[in-house]
Amino acid sequence: xxxxxxxxxxxxxxxxxxxxxxxxxxxxxxxxxxxxxxxxxxxxxxxxxxxxxxxxxxxxxxxxxxxxxxxxxxxxxxxxxxxxxxxxxxxxxxxxxxxxxxxxxxxxxxxxxxxxxxxx
Length: 120
Description:
The protein is flat and about 50 Å long. α2 (26-52) packs antiparallel against α3. The chain has 4 helices and no strands. With 120 residues, it is mainly alpha-helical.
């Protein structure tokens, strides 16, 4: 393929990708990010393999750039997913009553009971 065809395909893929992602509801965003993180992990492994088998210095430079960008994308995806999950947890307001979940800085039930018994 010539350069114009590759550029045309890239531009069309960007527009289609933007339209598809902008139509996703916020409820489905977190599961889709988890799937995307798994794909980015595979891309990172592939970039590491290519960097390990590079024969020319320019291939090694491009492969190392791919490793850096894939790592940044993977870490950023996990950070965004964690923030989205925190938003959903904070919205329900019932996390304090669920077993196994504690607010930061709040005493657990067993600790607060021990403190009350020692006061009596």
